[in-house]
Design goal:
The structure holds two protein chains of two kinds. By secondary structure, chain A is mainly α. Chain A has eleven helices and no strands. Helices cover 77% and strands 0% of the residues of chain A. The chains are: A mainly alpha, B mainly alpha.
Chain lengths: 206, 211
């Protein structure tokens, strides 16, 4: 306990390494969003975050590796409700939390969408993976309430409705999207979509 | 009366018609390549090769690559959601008609929509404005259908739900299938699936409004 209170050189260095990495990744995310992947160079990233080219190459082999580092499945930092004690409210809350993660990362979503529309395999694979995970988490939680078949339908509807709403707001408002998703009318819209999927679950329940 | 001035209804002179054809061919090639490979990654040379004319011919009509894009932005889709009249009942069959109308439109214009979406996402203000306009036209048409059948609150919600669903399903297909998406949108099994999802979430007449 005393030890952890003392400043640790090793840990300090690791932290600053991580901070540099994060700065590079943030700059890359912004520039990829703005110019697309192909038109962004390591040099532009370096200039954007005020780090030298060699330092960037110390952290990442090439541009592709920076991009791949941006495409890891997000740490949502929470779990879906367990199927044994699930309620309608818990399911709605889970969907809200997942949507909120994306709503607070609309710029990232914008970057991904642009690349996905161009059919780039990396971003497409990333979408398929996040989609599968969302469907699995939601349908196994909802199975406790509606049974497996209806739960799968709920997850299917929820994925399309929430992805559709996110893509719509990102496409329509671009860099203003982060402000729009905070508006009360938009939150209500998401509530409507989530309720519609849960109502469908109740109707489909065998 | 000055007979030398052709009236707008006169057929164009043959030379004029040839010019229009070339211009149209270049624009069609540009749309195809920009939508598939992106505006940044396409060269004027590629557009020329695709349309079967020389680089110089492209530059004769369009002084820069950017002016090709600007010309594409003046293309207005022929129709948005055609002429379905809103009726007092929102039946499953009516919902199917609305979906078919919408997907006919998306299928006919998927190249332009894909390009517009990409450029709007990249910050092109014209693309963004056009995309917003076509979104608003579609939402107004859909809302009129629901407003004829339901109270105002239900109509608002129904519009949001159907919009999110159709947008989610069509964008997903556009991402996955790229320039082959047009065939997917025309496929009746694809439409059937979309309709089956829609009847589960969209309020229908005689079933009580969704909460």
């Amino acid at each position: 306990m005393v030890r952890s209170a003392q400043p640790n050189r090793q840990a300090g260095r690791a932290e600053s390494t991580n901070a540099t990495r994060r700065r590079i990744l943030n700059a890359a995310r912004e520039l990829f969003t703005q110019h697309g992947y192909a038109a962004t160079s390591i040099r532009m990233i370096a200039r954007h975050c005020g780090i030298s080219d060699p330092t960037i190459h110390y952290h990442f082999r090439d541009k592709a590796e920076i991009y791949e580092a941006l495409l890891v499945t997000p740490e949502y930092g929470d779990d879906p409700p367990p199927a044994s004690q699930v309620s309608r409210e818990a399911l709605a809350d889970f969907m809200h939390r997942r949507f909120s993660w994306w709503a607070s990362n609309t710029e990232f979503a914008r970057l991904l969408m642009r690349e996905q529309l161009r059919g780039r395999p990396g971003p497409l694979g990333y979408m398929v993976e996040s989609e599968l995970r969302f469907r699995e988490e939601l349908s196994s939680a909802a199975a406790g309430l509606y049974g497996q078949d209806a739960a799968r339908r709920v997850a299917d509807l929820a994925w399309y409705l929430l992805a559709g709403a996110l893509w719509d707001v990102v496409m329509t408002y671009g860099s203003d999207a982060p402000g729009v998703v905070e508006q009360e009318y938009f939150r209500n819209r998401i509530r409507t979509l989530i309720n519609a999927t849960l109502d469908a679950g109740e109707r489909c329940k065998a | 009366m000055t007979p030398a001035t052709p009236s707008p209804t006169d057929p164009p002179a043959p030379a004029q018609r040839g010019r229009d054809d070339t211009r149209r061919r270049i624009l069609a090639a540009a749309l195809e390549l920009f939508a598939r490979d992106g505006f940044d990654d396409t060269t004027v040379r590629e557009v020329a090769a695709r349309s079967g004319v020389t680089d110089a011919a492209v530059f004769y009509y369009f002084p820069s690559k950017r002016s090709l894009l600007d010309a594409l932005w003046t293309i207005r889709p022929e129709r948005n959601i055609r002429t379905l009249e809103p009726g007092p009942a929102m039946t499953p069959a009516r919902l199917r008609e609305i979906i078919d109308e919408t997907l006919d439109f998306v299928a006919d214009n998927h190249d332009l929509m894909r390009l517009m979406s990409c450029e709007a996402l990249g910050g092109d203000q014209t693309a963004r404005a056009l995309q917003q306009e076509s979104r608003a036209v579609w939402r107004r048409a859909i809302h009129a259908h629901f407003a004829a059948a339901f109270d105002a609150t239900t109509a608002d919600r129904a519009t949001d739900i159907l919009h999110a669903l159709i947008h989610g399903v069509t964008m997903r297909a556009m991402m996955e299938h790229g320039d082959r998406a047009g065939d997917i949108f025309r496929d009746s099994a694809f439409r059937e699936q979309l309709w089956r999802k829609a009847v589960l979430v969209v309020p229908l007449s005689g079933m009580g409004p969704a909460s």
